């Protein structure tokens, strides 16, 4: 019997209501006030650099591909080591595998939006009530089609979230590459600084040994007391201990470098050589907007946007799902009759499904998605704040280390002159050997501190380049 127009309209009311409410199934909008803003300038640049005061999330953070920034140090061996680490480092390979996994999951999620098609065949033994309840065998084969209509954006939001997860993993891969490159560079520069310090201390040790030989000769001839011999012997032993400590440090740095480039420590070595690595000067006036290319910020932003999309997925779970299905094939009691015209069968259908009671599952899912968004938003804010802190740290370190280097150079010059004067006065008998040893110790200490300040300048330069995302242009 035909339904009246009023009844047909009433039957459509649930679907119409769902369509109206579908507008609420969008993701949560993040207020700009909850996001950190870029400062007008880096404090350590003297406030001379300007940039717009915009929320960090409104600035594109594409995670630009890092250039060959380590080549600014003009060291061919360093270039080889970084390239080897790019190929063989295990942390980079793990990050690359996670990116491949995220891309595969994105493809899997996106596949649910496409037409699903499958072939089926089967054999069933069943009771046929139309023929005196006799048993018969039914052989069937057919093609099944299904397609879920994305009325409320649930599938597209899930696909967007998975794609953003893959983008986050891509940025994390670049972040890992930048981290490994910086660690290789800093470890190599530390090793070269240690080589220079070893050379300085070894030269000093040889000078002390020569002094000890002369002092022992003079002691045997009765020109000096045994106390002078004991003092020089003490300096020789103490300096030998310093040499061994530096040898241990160099070995550990070499082993750490082997792991970074993906080699066994037992098979890896870096020959000692003169430290001739250039120290690049990063120009003043670096804009704060360069931080938008940091891959870790790009990853945090993509994760936040993915969490935002998943809130939309959780909201869409409150609305009905609408699927279209179709099937066609053959069914016959005998295999030989399976593909005859009389055994053909087909069907089309539509299914509208709306959960009514689920024990609070959808509400819990929405609460979980909102909590995930809160965590992602907090992580993004933290990442931005840490990024600016790291840049300020390295800028202040470079400024103070430059001043310290100048002061240390004056100290080295003064202590070197004091050693020369003490040596001359000692040879002429005006001062004791103790005063000469004090002058020599002071000069060695100042020269070692000058090397350490220089090494710290290299470390801070690499740290600043990494904090800026792999460059400053």
Automatic annotation (TrEMBL):
Family membership noted in the UniProt record: Belongs to the outer membrane factor (OMF) (TC 1.B.17) family.
One GO cellular component term noted in the UniProt record for this chain: plasma membrane
Places the protein is found: Cell membrane
Protein species of origin: Rhodoferax fermentans
SUPFAM superfamilies: Outer membrane efflux proteins (OEP) (SSF56954)
InterPro entries given in the database record: MdtP/NodT-like (IPR010131), OMP_efflux (IPR003423)
Membrane topology type: Lipid-anchor
Coiled coil regions in record: 434-461
NCBIfam families per UniProt: outer_NodT
Official protein name in the record: RND transporter
Keywords from the named record: Coiled coil, Lipoprotein, Membrane, Palmitate, Signal, Transmembrane, Transmembrane beta strand
């Amino acid at each position: 019997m035909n339904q009246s127009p009023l009844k047909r309209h009433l039957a459509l009311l649930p679907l119409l209501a769902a369509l109206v409410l579908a507008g609420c199934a969008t993701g949560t909008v993040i207020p700009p006030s909850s996001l950190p803003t870029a400062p007008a300038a880096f404090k350590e640049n003297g406030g001379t650099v300007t940039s717009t005061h915009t929320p960090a999330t409104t600035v594109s953070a594409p995670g630009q591909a890092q250039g060959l920034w380590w080549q600014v140090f003009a060291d061919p061996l360093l270039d080889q080591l970084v390239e080897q680490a790019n190929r063989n480092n295990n942390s980079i390979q793990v990050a690359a595998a996670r990116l491949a996994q995220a891309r595969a999951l994105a493809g899997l999620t996106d596949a649910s939006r496409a037409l699903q098609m499958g072939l089926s065949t089967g054999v069933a033994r069943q009771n046929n009530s139309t023929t005196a309840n006799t048993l018969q065998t039914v052989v069937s084969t057919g093609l099944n089609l299904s397609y879920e209509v994305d009325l409320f954006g649930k599938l597209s939001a899930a696909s967007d979230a998975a794609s953003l997860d893959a983008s986050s993993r891509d940025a994390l891969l670049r972040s890992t590459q930048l981290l490994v490159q910086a660690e290789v560079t800093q470890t190599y520069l530390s090793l070269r600084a240690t080589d220079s310090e070893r050379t300085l201390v070894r030269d000093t040790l040889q000078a002390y040994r020569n002094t000890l030989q002369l002092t022992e000769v003079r002691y045997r001839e009765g020109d000096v007391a045994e106390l002078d011999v004991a003092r020089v012997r003490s300096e020789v032993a103490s300096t030998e201990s310093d040499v061994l400590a530096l040898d241990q440090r160099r070995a550990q740095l070499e082993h750490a470098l082997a792991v970074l480039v993906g080699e066994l420590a037992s098979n890896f070595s870096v020959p000692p050589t003169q430290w001739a690595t250039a120290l690049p000067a990063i120009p003043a006036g670096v804009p704060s907007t360069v931080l938008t290319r940091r891959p870790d910020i790009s990853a945090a932003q993509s994760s936040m946007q993915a969490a935002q999309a998943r809130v939309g997925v959780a909201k869409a779970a409150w609305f009905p799902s609408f699927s279209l299905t179709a099937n066609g094939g053959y069914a016959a009691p005998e295999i030989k009759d399976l593909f005859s015209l009389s055994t053909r069968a087909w069907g089309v259908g539509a299914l509208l499904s709306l959960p009514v009671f689920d024990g609070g599952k959808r509400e819990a899912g929405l609460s979980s998605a909102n909590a995930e968004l809160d965590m992602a938003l907090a992580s993004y804010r933290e990442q931005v704040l840490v990024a600016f802190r790291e840049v300020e740290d390295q800028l202040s370190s470079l400024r103070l280390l430059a001043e310290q280097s100048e002061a240390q150079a004056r100290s080295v010059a003064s202590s070197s002159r004091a050693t020369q004067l003490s040596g001359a006065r000692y040879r002429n008998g005006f001062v004791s050997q103790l005063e000469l040893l004090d002058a020599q110790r002071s000069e060695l200490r100042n020269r070692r501190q000058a090397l350490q300040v220089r090494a710290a300048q290299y470390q801070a330069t690499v740290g600043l380049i990494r904090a800026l995302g792999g460059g400053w242009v």
